[in-house]
Specification:
There is one protein chain. Strand 9, helix 5 and strand 10 form a beta-alpha-beta unit. The longest helix is centred in the middle third of the chain and has 18 residues. The chain is α/β, with parallel strands linked by helices. It has three domains: 39 residues; 208 residues, P-loop containing nucleotide triphosphate hydrolases (Rossmann fold, 3-Layer(aba) Sandwich); 174 residues, Ribosomal Protein S5, domain 2 (2-Layer Sandwich), CATH 3.30.230. The structure holds thymidine-5'-diphosphate (TYD) and magnesium ion. Magnesium ion binds next to helix 2.
């Protein structure tokens, strides 16, 4: 039998299949399987007794905390948990054009200006293009070592010397190739091999390595997910095209938490940090329209106010449309069902559209009450109270449950000039805006309606 010399690898999740298929059975992605030359298998002859003895040590002598290099981009430092850790590998993923190169150029210029040797190696842009960008960003005087390269051998040849740069940015990992592997740059095999060579160098030289990885939908190049397990920290840079806001999120961090986010605004001068995102998300809020409600949310340890908008329109279809941007479709279906079954408010002949303003994405169940308020406001065509924020989780029986960090949410709302907070009733004391059941919310809207008319 002829031994097969190629394997079929999903570019999305890295699963290996014996033959080509249209759909990856491991991750369910379509059209992502690519034939690649097989790598040499594990060398034969590995058996006990041949390896050298490991030097085991105890947990207690782990040493001090790893030293950090601040990037002076406060939002980035916050997400990293206090700056770049020496000898760590960080992967920054995101859609093409979202601003990864811009962010890293700004960060690396800041570390270079502080005197840490910093290199920026681009496989996508020419040195001239990067210079132009640096000029636009006002960073030309930063002593960054700049180069354009694609060969991992060349990159290692330049970085793996003493003194090695303290910070090295590689933009992007999908443009690199290891010349001993036949696959094209961007395939899973190349991306993994290139990353692992660079990470090994980073550990050896105690360099902080920042790898850029593009997220792709069509599977033509391997996504950053195939590298997530190899690096210490995985950050995703997200945002909606057409909105200037960008959000940096940690999904894995060996040196800090993953609950913090960084908020940036893309402008003519590159990315600027947004230290008070609530004010920014609230700035474009219109006056007195029905269906618009302010949700007092939390992102990590940070309270954040965002506007939730609902639109309810008559439907003539057997299954009316439900469209959601920035929130969970299943959760919307649940709230609609609870409103129907527990409060007698029907949407069965209505189309429902829900949108989180500013291109923001909400993951918290605490938004339930705000969504319900937006839906009721849109259905009854009555503006929600303009001076109030909403938050609370809704259970299947229609009960409103308190959520974590109430104090922080209230404080943020107060800071931005909201005098009322409509949330779960606590304790026995009588609160006019305390909600025990979703019916209280329906009553509130009916009452507002009476007060106005
Ligand atoms: P870029 O950092 O090249 O994205 P990525 O590396 O993630 O592919 O950013 C590209 C976009 O950012 C591009 O469409 C132009 C925009 N941009 C600005 O709006 N202002 C700026 O100062 C810069 C440098 C880029
Ligand atoms: Mg780029």
């Amino acid at each position: 039998m002829v031994k097969s010399t190629s394997s079929f690898i999903c570019q999305e999740c890295g699963a290996v299949h014996p033959k080509w298929m249209g759909k990856c059975e491991a991750c369910g992605a379509w059209n992502t399987i690519v034939e690649e030359a097989a790598r040499e298998a594990v060398p034969k002859g590995i058996s006990a007794g041949k390896g050298k003895k490991l030097a085991f040590s105890s947990l207690s002598d782990a040493g001090e905390e790893a030293p950090r290099i601040p990037t002076l981009v406060a939002e980035l430092d916050r997400v990293l948990g206090g700056g770049l850790v020496e000898g760590s590998a960080i992967l920054i993923g995101g859609d093409p054009g979202i601003g990864k190169s811009t962010l890293l150029l700004q960060a690396v210029a800041a570390t270079a200006k502080q005197g840490f040797g910093s290199a920026y190696i681009s496989g996508e842009e020419s040195v001239q293009q990067i210079r132009l960008r640096a000029k636009r960003l006002g960073l030309v005087d930063a002593p960054v070592q700049l180069a354009a390269a694609n060969s991992v051998r060349d990159i290692l040849g330049s970085l793996d010397n003493s003194p090695a740069p303290r910070v090295a940015v590689i933009d992007s990992v999908q443009t690199l190739y290891v010349d001993s592997i036949e696959s094209a740059p961007g395939t899973v095999t190349q991306v993994r091999a290139s990353a692992s060579e660079l990470i090994r160098m980073a550990k050896r030289r105690n360099t902080c390595l920042l790898l850029v990885g593009h997220v792709t939908k069509d599977g033509q190049i391997a996504g950053p997910r195939v590298l997530e397990h190899m690096v210490d920290t995985v950050l995703y840079f997200e945002g909606e095209r057409g909105h200037p806001f960008r959000i940096l999120r940690a999904v894995k961090n060996r040196f800090g938490g993953t609950e913090e986010i960084g908020v940036f605004e893309m402008g003519d001068q590159g990315l600027s940090e947004v230290s008070n995102p609530s004010a920014l998300f609230m700035a474009q809020r219109g006056e007195q329209v029905s269906g618009s409600v302010v949700f007092a949310g939390m992102e990590g340890s940070r309270p954040m106010l965002v506007e939730i908008q609902a639109l309810v329109a008559p439907s003539f279809m057997a299954t009316p449309r439900r469209a959601v941007v920035g929130w969970d479709t299943n959760r919307l279906a649940m709230i609609l069902a609870v409103l129907d079954a527990r409060c007698g408010v029907r949407f069965h002949d209505k189309e429902v559209y829900l949108n989180v303003a500013g291109g923001f994405k909400i993951g918290e169940p605490a938004a339930d009450l705000a969504v319900a308020a937006a839906l009721l406001s849109a259905l009854l065509n009555r503006p929600a109270p303009q001076d109030a924020v909403f938050f609370g989780e809704i259970g299947l029986s229609g009960e409103v449950r308190p959520v974590a960090r109430t104090d922080a949410r209230l404080k943020e709302a107060q800071k931005l000039g909201f005098s009322r907070a409509i949330h779960a009733a606590s304790g026995k004391e009588k609160q006019p805006d305390g909600m025990k059941h979703l019916q209280d919310m329906v009553r509130l809207f009916r009452r507002e309606q009476e007060l106005v008319s």
